[in-house]
Amino acid sequence: MSLTRSAWRRFKRNPAAITGAVIVLCFVAVAVCAPVLTPYEPASVEWADEVTLDSGPEPNSAHLLGLDRFGSDLWTQMVYGARTSLVLGLVSTVIGLTVGAVLGAMSGGFATVGGRWGRRVDNILMRLVDIMLSVPSLLVAISIAAVLGANSWSVILAVGAAQVPFFARLLRGSMLGQSGEDYVVAAHALGLRKRQIVVGHILPNSVGPTIVQATLSLATAIIEVASLSFLGLGESDPAVAEWGRMLVAAQDRFDVAPQLALYPGIAIAVTALGFTLLGETMREALDPRSRR
Fold first, then answer.
1. Distances (CA, A) of 233 to 74, 142, 149, 220
2. Chain centroid to CA 241: how far?
3. Could you tell me which of 4, 89, 73, 17 has the C-alpha nearest to residue 40?
4. Which of 163, 183, 190, 204 could staple 96 via S-S, CB 3.0–4.6 A?
């Protein structure tokens, strides 16, 4: 049985994998179909006169989850918040994966090719990555977002930059591990150039763990996007619904309307759990050592 078929067989038999896949598919479906799932706009405040300081907004047939403190439909905020989290988390992860993969491939390639200059380049790149790793990723994201200002692109760049060192380290380590495999020794014996071996053989066989890590990083990205919004460093436009900003708006009404904070908090936790379960089970399924 091939590695791919064996991995799929293990994946679909794992309850955690099915649970994670269902959560992720539901999250993506809600984000994509947001305009279909609600007739309202996320920034609409036409029901502001129905919200009082002494009573929380009650759910009804017109508003499934009730109203927030500004008189906006809470279900609409939740649905469009899923879309915002998906877009920002996905784009930031792609940026982090791309930049980190380039750095990791360069470092691993120079280290594999060898030579004095190759080892020097690898050492310089990895020291830069170590400096980035020495600072907590959320602190890196907060610093970048604070410098660039409160908008969606600053969040994307901040979260993406925080993920770069993890992808770089992972791809470099995977390439160094592959450099000692039998097929690399056979390629050397056939007289192939080192550059051709690295680009044509080692690199393609090393990207698998990095792609799987991207699924796990999506969970971290969604949490960090919500964290930046909670700290006031997210999108400043009130028309853009964000789960983190919903948590901020719910603080002064938690005693009368706790659902204003519970719903977005649960959404963040469940979504992150789904991507974590999916990524972990994918890594286990693709691990050749787990084949039976």
1. 22, 8, 7, 17
2. 18
3. 73
4. 163
Per-residue pLDDT tens digits for 159-196: 999 999 999 999 998 888 888 788 888 888 888 888 88
What's the CA gap between 192 and 200, in Å, rounded? 10
CA 232 remoteness from chain centre: 20
Contact residues for 57 (Cβ-Cβ < 8 A; gap 6+): 50, 51, 63, 66, 67, 68, 74, 257
Give dist(CA 284, CA 212) in Å, integer. 10
pLDDT band at 48 (very low <50, low <70, confident <90, very high): low
> Could you give phi then psi for residue 67, rounded to 5 degrees?
-120, 150
CB 112 within 8 A of CB 202: yes
Whether the CB-CB separation of 101 and 207 falls below 8 Å is answered with yes
Nearest Cα to Cα of residue 60 among 73, 77, 45: 73
Q: Which CATH superfamily groups domain 3-47+64-290?
A: MetI-like (1.10.3720.10)
Q: Residue 201 has which token pair?
A: 């053989």
DSSP assignment letter at 201: I
Query: Where is 284: in which H helix or E strand?
Result: helix 259-286
**CA pair distance 67, 199, nearest whole angstrom:** 56
Beta bridge partners of residue 67, listed in sequence order: 73
